[in-house]
Every structure is written in C-alpha cells, then in structure tokens.
Prior knowledge:
By secondary structure, the chain is of the alpha/beta class. It has two domains: 221 residues, no CATH class; 41 residues.
Amino acid sequence: MKSLSIYQIYYDDATRAGLDPLFIPLDNANNERPDWREYWPIRRFLLNNPLDENTYYGFFSPKFQAKTGLSGRTVVDFIEENEAEVYFFSPFVEQQAFFINIFEHGDANHAGLMDAMQQFVSSVGIAVDLRSLVCDFNNSIFSNYFVAKAKFWRKWLELGEHLFALSEAADNPLATRLNAPTDYHAQVGEVGLKVFMMERLATLMLICYQFSAKAYDPFAITRSGIPASRLDHEMRIANALKMAFLSTRDGRYIESFARFRNSVLAGLRLP
C-alpha cells in the first residue's frame, strides 16, 4: 500500500463541510493572498513541512469533485492500482484533445499567456518553444489535480517560486503582465494571468523532465457540457494524431491534426 497525503483546501465552513472524507483538510480560511488562489496554501505547506521521499502528495481545490465527478476512494484506488511518480485527474477532455497543447489553450482563454509563459520558461533556463510543444491525454494537467512524489513537488515549488518572485518584484516589467487580471468565470471575477501560468507548471515538468506519469481516463471525468465535450469519436482521433507525432516526430501528423481540429470546430459553429 502506498503512502498517500492528499489534501483538500478549504476557505470557510461551507467549503470545509464539502470536503471528501478521504482527503486531509488544508486550512486557507485566512486567505492572506487571494490573488494567488490555490498556490498560496500549497506554497505555505511545502515551505513549512518536510516531505517524505516515499509519500505521494496532492493538493486539491474544494471544487475537485464538482469538476471531475471523482470521489476520494476513486482517486486512492487508481493510485494503488498503477505505478507512476505522478498521477493526474484532468477535467476538460475537449480542451486536451482539440488544442495542440495547454499553453495554446491558455492563450485562447487568457490573452497574452503564451508570450508571458515563454518569457518565464526562458528566464529559468528551459530551452523550449511552447508554441511547438504537443500535449496529449498523457501529459495535460488542469487545475493542479495531480498527486506526486516529493521530488516532483520540490521541482514544482522551485519553478513556482521563480514565478512568484517575478510576479512580486516591483521593478520587473514582466510583473505587470503576470498580475494583470483576466476574465475567468462571472461568479469568480478577475484572476491574474500568473494563476493560469502556475496551473500549467506540472504539464511543463512532464514535458521537460523525466517523471513517469499516469492519467485517469479523461473520458470518465465529468464533461463541461459544451458541444465539443460530447464529440468522443473526434476527440480520440485528434488525440491519436498528436500521439502519433510524439512517437514518430513526423510533422505530417500535426498538419493532419490541425486540419482535422479546425474542421471539427468549424462544424460546431455552423447554424
């Protein structure tokens, strides 16, 4: 049996009452830095608690069950039944399928994310062109819904603290862009670009570093309900084309993916 420490963040009595009983409550009731969303309580925990090398840690938002439809028991059983260093439970299957990577997805929803993220990765010495990266179901992590060993979290925190420092530096011209508000959901309001960049660090790590990972079947996770989320056949084709590229590095698969994706999405816009 694996050693698991999966935390779920709460902000008040209402969110605490809704926590999964198999997750450990993580108090963020004071919410000193709401501009950092979930990164603040995760950061506080990682900076102030020693991590055991053989333990798997996770930090889920209060909305985990609502976004994924998964219970704590399902999460624990999946981890126990599979061997990896990182396990993830990503919602939004259509976003994983129909965008070439989650950075393109982020830029489509939060203008300027791609350029800001490219500046960030260059500043930490990661030599990668984000526009050319290809993400499939095996490395697309949304909402920080992942459970990983201590060594993954240490590297994640190292990157996170660099982004944190860039955002907090008054004399850094990039800080203005990182803190600039973007539209999110009407009930939530504006959220800084830095938050959506932070949520993409885990995917960046899976692409750039050698960590074994196991994804929970994205088709078995709650759908968003938008028309694209019901196109299972088309999503599997789009994902297969990206997987074919990743295994062969033959650019024709990405050309086919782009044509297919564009055709599918154009069809959705027809009256």
